[in-house]
Amino acid sequence: MNRTLKFVFTILFLAGGSAVAQQDSTETKPKRKFKDIVQVYGYIKNLNIVSFSDNPLVGNSDEHFLHNRLNFRIYPVKGLSIGAEFRNRFFYSGRTAETPAFKQNVGSDGGLIDMSWNIGNDVNPVLLNSTIDRLWIAYGNDKIDLRIGRQRINWGINTAWNPNDIFNAYNFIDFDYEERPGTDAVRFQYFGKKMSGFEIAVAPRENWKEATAAFMYKFNAKEYDFQFIAGQYRTDITAGFGFAGNAGNAGLKGEIQWFGPYEGFTDSTHVVTGTVSADYSFSNSLYIVGSVLYNSAGIDDSDPAKLATFFTGSALTAKNLMPTKYNAFLTLSYPITPLLGSSLAIIYGYGPNLLLINPGLTYSLAANCEILLAGQLFFSEFPEIKDGIFTSSYQNISNSVFLRLKYSY
Prior knowledge:
Elements: H1 2-25, H2 34-37, E1 38-52, E2 61-74, E3 80-94, H3 95-98, H4 100-106, E4 116-119, E5 127-140, E6 144-151, E7 183-191, E8 197-203, E9 212-221, E10 224-233, E11 236-247, E12 250-261, E13 271-281, E14 287-295, H5 304-312, E15 326-335, E16 340-349, E17 354-366, E18 369-386, E19 389-408
Antiparallel strand pairs: 1-2, 1-19, 2-3, 3-5, 4-5, 5-6, 6-7, 7-8, 8-9, 9-10, 10-11, 11-12, 12-13, 13-14, 14-15, 15-16, 16-17, 17-18, 18-19
């Protein structure tokens, strides 16, 4: 912990010193203001979650925590930038605050360098955690960008599912994490003419078989954006394709990614994940997005273990964005008034008839303050034993209600 923090503050100190030196050496130019060199922004949120279920394997739970985010940007000299983002959460009630196993899970971020720390001990029924989920230094101009450190490498195109997002897949269910996960990597981007260019990114790990390294080439043709991806995804060779454009007045997007083990290539099972989506905005401001996803490694029937890991997000990877093979997604959003917005998202997985219903209401209290009321309802075929006979039935597995107050600065 101490070495990591010293590294962070050393970067900030050197960046500030470089900025002063730059100002002193260019006295003929207008002096830059502090706000032009250092920018700080973020938000404070209070989130309350109440979950309940008639299924004894799921049970009831609650979660209450404060979430403060601090984002720093430093621009010491032209072309050079440094970013650091801190995710600070204080769990003051609920299962995370009261369960040692959950505390240990929050206190580890799984990156090349673990930059998540629990402050306090496992005895107290509260938990304070601080995580650095962005820490990078970058140099760039209108042609190139080189970025080193913890960052988000967003190669995905679609709204719900992104097979092309091989570096840092995210869980759609975790809507409260707007920034989405990052990865420890080196990334080089080249920007060509007419929306063309390429990227090379490497996310190393202590064991190279857990590393990801890939190349992406993108271009524009016939008013469509295309991208091609090839590289290594952990123990697999991977290749993918994505596109985005319009079909009339509707948006049309698609992604497909193939994964094949590089050890025992011909004798192993290969995985293909593909998705297509369309979106349309009506004249009355109703916005609709529909998408389908195919996961060749998904299940066709009810598997409690795989469904449970999906609910927690622990099994979610670029190869396994849904536990089911055939999936559909639909979301609607509509501004009821200028201050009150509504949304409804539905995810369906064929086989166990996995169904997620996610309604939400957002009210703007001020330009930088809003309140959110949302729900998540899960239904699925679920195995059970009745009168000594192993069977299954369609059940309401769990329900959650979210109330969040957010202030941005």
